[in-house]
Structures are given as C-alpha cells and as structure tokens.
C-alpha cells in the first residue's frame, strides 16, 4: 500500500473486481429480488439483514470498476489478508497507511471499525476527497530509517521499551519506537487485525516502519480479549522490515507468507507461559 506508487494493470483490476463482487454481489442480487416481490415481509428482511450491501461496498465496486489505478499488493497478497478479514468481520481493523487500496480494505469490513493511520495530512485530504467514507488520522513518527540499526540494538536498555510485558505506548516519551501520540481511539480499542504497509521506508530520511512494527507488537501483547491479533506486514523483502519482524513479531508466530507479505498470529502476553518470560524479549 505504498502511498504514491501504484500499478495500472487491467488484469489486476479485473481480479480485484472478482474479489469485491464475490464478497457482496450475491447478497446484492438477493436484496434486489426480495424488493421486487414488493412484500412488507421481504422489505423488512432486506433492511435488517446483517449481510445487506452497504454504501461503502457499492462505492468500492464503482471506484475499482472505473479507475485504472489498482492496489500495489498482488492478488495473492490481498487474498491472504482478505480470507482472514472475512473470517473476523465485523472486527477492529487498524491499517498503517492510506492509499488507493484503502476503500477496498474498508469495504471488506463494512460493519466493523477500519481505521487508517497516515503520516502526510495532505495525502489524507487527497484520498478522502474521493473516498469520504474512510476513517483516517494523521500520525507523527519520531524515527528515521537511518536509525534502524541503532534503535534495534539499544531499545532493550530503555525500561519504557523493555521488557515487553511492561512496555506501553500512550504518552511514552522515552521509548522512541513507541507511537506515543496517537488519538485515544487507537489506544482504547483492541485491534483484531493490523496491516502494516506504511510509513515510507525506502530512503534514509524516511520514518521507516520500525515504530509501526514495535507498536503493533505491544498492542498484540496487551490484548485482553479472546483470540490472537492478526498482524500483516508488507515489503518483507526489505532489510529493516525483515529484521524488525523477527525481533518483535516473531518467527514462531509467522503462520503464512505470500509474495512480500507475512501473516503473524500473536497471542496476548497473558497466554504465553514460561520462566523468565519478561526478560526473554518479545519472542
């Protein structure tokens, strides 16, 4: 989901439409059929059905059917996340990055909460101008990609970063890997699924994804609800993403990888047993 790099490919567009149409097309036809019957009973059933097509889903179909711009992730990568999201929705879905695939992700979780975190307020304005249904916040990063090695070596010496069972995010000014100034909505919810496809991480002065990966790991460990937190990390072919994933998201929680996308299922810290758990690190 690179913010400013997109693919223009008719084949990808068709495949994406198959995903979207397969998700909601059947229900849409059922609703049309029921309304055609002109029965009060069928009208009531259509209006209260939890599967009834939503405006954001119809907007997504219209958008991707008429736009030459498609998401950067491949169909196989999108399908990996889509299958998990379909099994969870409605759910709480946090996405690092806002782009031309954001309408797609929100349409896959129409009755859940899908929140996008984006570093560039001008880019938010540009995207929301054409997709006002999306919910997005600006996030400020305190890191640079050039600092990734140093931060990975030094975070264990900062008590507010480590051990992981005591790490926290909100107002954590000392741990630079902690996203400490997010809206309360981010801290107050338990996120069932987190997608990390931002911020920028391909030049030295870019924020890099170190803080996003670390913060996602902290959120997952502090989960109090049932089940695991599903974390998806894109661009794992890059050195920093791969190194931080191994340190904080953990190889043992990696359940599947497709292309440049890894899927982790991270249990709450309360469900992880073993002596010396606090001092052992995130993994």
Instruction: Quickly give the structural class.
Output: alpha/beta
Chain-averaged pLDDT: 85
Q: Quick one: CATH class?
A: Alpha Beta
By CATH, the topology is Rossmann fold
State Rg: 20 Å
Helix content: 40-55%
Strand order of the largest sheet: 3-2-1-4-5-7-6
Number of helices: 10
Q: Tell me the number of strands.
A: 7
Q: What's the CATH architecture?
A: 3-Layer(aba) Sandwich
Written overview of the protein:
There is one protein chain. The chain contains 10 helices and 7 strands. The model is unreliable at 2-8 and 22-48 (pLDDT under 50). The chain has one domain (73-271): Rossmann fold. It has helices at 10-36, 40-48, 55-66, 75-88, 102-108, 121-130, 148-154, 184-188, 210-221, 239-249; strands at residues 92-96, 113-118, 136-138, 193-196, 229-234, 254-258, 261-266. By secondary structure, the chain is α/β, with parallel strands linked by helices. A 7-stranded mixed beta sheet has the order 3-2-1-4-5-7-6, sandwiched between helices. The longest helix has 27 residues, at 10-36.
């Amino acid at each position: 989901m690179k913010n400013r790099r997109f693919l223009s490919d008719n084949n990808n567009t068709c495949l994406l439409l198959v995903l979207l149409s397969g998700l909601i097309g059947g229900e849409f036809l059922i609703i049309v059929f029921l309304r055609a019957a002109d029965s009060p009973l069928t009208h009531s059933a259509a209006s209260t059905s939890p599967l009834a097509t939503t405006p954001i889903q119809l907007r997504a179909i219209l958008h991707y059917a008429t736009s030459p711009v498609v998401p950067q992730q491949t169909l196989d990568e999108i399908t990996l996340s889509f299958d998990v999201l379909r099994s969870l929705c409605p759910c709480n879905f946090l996405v690092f990055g806002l782009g031309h695939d954001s309408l797609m992700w929100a349409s896959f979780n129409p009755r859940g909460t899908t929140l996008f975190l984006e570093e560039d307020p001008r880019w938010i304005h540009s995207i929301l101008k054409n997709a006002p249904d999306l919910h997005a916040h600006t996030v400020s990063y305190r890191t640079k990609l050039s600092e990734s090695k140093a931060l990975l070596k030094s975070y264990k010496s900062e008590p507010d970063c480590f051990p992981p069972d005591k790490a926290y995010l909100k107002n954590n000014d000392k741990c630079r890997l902690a996203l400490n100034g997010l809206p309360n909505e981010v801290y107050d919810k338990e996120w069932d699924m987190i997608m990390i496809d931002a911020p920028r991480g391909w030049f030295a002065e870019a924020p890099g994804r170190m803080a996003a990966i670390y913060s996602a790991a902290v959120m997952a460990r502090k989960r109090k609800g049932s089940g695991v937190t599903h974390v998806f990390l894109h661009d794992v072919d890059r050195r920093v993403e791969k190194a931080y994933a191994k340190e904080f998201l953990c190889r043992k929680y990696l359940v599947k990888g497709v292309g440049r996308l890894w899927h982790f299922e991270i249990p709450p810290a309360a469900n992880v047993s073993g002596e010396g758990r606090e001092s052992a690190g995130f993994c």
